Amino acid sequence: MTAEPTLYGLIDDLEKYLEYQRDEGVQRVEVDRAVLEELAREPTEEKAEEVTVEAAPIPADFESLEQIAEHVLRCRSCPLCQERIHAVPGEGNGDAPDILFVGEGPGADEDQLGRPFVGKAGQLLDKMIEAMGYKREQVFIANIVKCRPLNNRKPLPEEMEMCMPYLHQQIRLIRPKVIVGLGGTAMEGLLGNKVSITRMRGIWQEYQGIRLMPTFHPSYLLRDPSKKKEAWLDLKMVLAELGKEPPPRK
Ligand code: URA
């Protein structure tokens, strides 16, 4: 189930879209003054919990997804813990699902609810999952970083590196048949180097011996719906890999 996106969720999506544009080489955009004023406004909603960073190493021997989730909720290994309302461990079918979707990190809506992809981008991801013939609860959905980055910026390489042991171990325990990397940052986190999602999308990669398909992030697709066709080609390749066909359109 997804929630109505909040204003801060929409701002979050917009910021991520602008970061994508920058990463793809776009140097100028036209922005309405009202939008700039809204971006400058300080959120006055719920305040983040007050926590101090205690850079303790993340254990490498979790035995269950529940153990990982409990650890994530208490994690203080990097400064992202200071800004969060809720950490977002991930959710879904953790028992060898066909697909694990990996996003970048929680946005405002996810931070509020402690669940991945529940804002506007999440609503589109739900539609993508349905178009592939699955229900949200049949796949697993996780992120590279488990806490919302300050001011909705892209997570820093050191934050991704710090948080990756969680996802690495989630993947070991979940044993998905295929991983779908949503956007350049997710791919960067998984592969450990900078990528251009425009160039890499649709080309099979591998993570821990599991087939990994890079595609566009739903936030990007919301801003540029013309790219949905390419994303759908990528998702159809995932279905073909799983020996499936998309269900007939309703
Ligand atoms: N964007 C992401 O990358 N992850 C989420 O959970 C939500 C939005």
Summarize the structure.
This protein is 41% helix and 10% strand. The protein is an alpha/beta fold and 250 residues long.
What small molecules does the structure contain? uracil
Q: What's the CATH architecture?
A: 3-Layer(aba) Sandwich
Order of helices and strands: HHHEEHHEHEHHEEHH
Global mean pLDDT: 89
> What is the count of DSSP helices, taking H or I runs of 4+ residues?
10
The CATH topology name reads Uracil-DNA Glycosylase, subunit E
Shape: globular
Find the structural class using helix and strand composition.
alpha/beta
What percentage of residues falls in helices of 4 or more residues? Answer: 40-55%
Low-confidence segments, given as residue ranges, are none
The CATH superfamily is known as Uracil-DNA glycosylase-like domain
Number of domains: 1
Strand content of the residues, in percent? 5-15%
Q: What summary fits the major beta sheet?
A: 6 strands, mixed
Spatial strand order of the main sheet:
1-3-2-4-6-5
Distance between the termini: 20 Å
Q: Count of DSSP E strands?
A: 6
Rg over CA atoms, rounded to whole Å, is 17 Å
CATH class placement: Alpha Beta
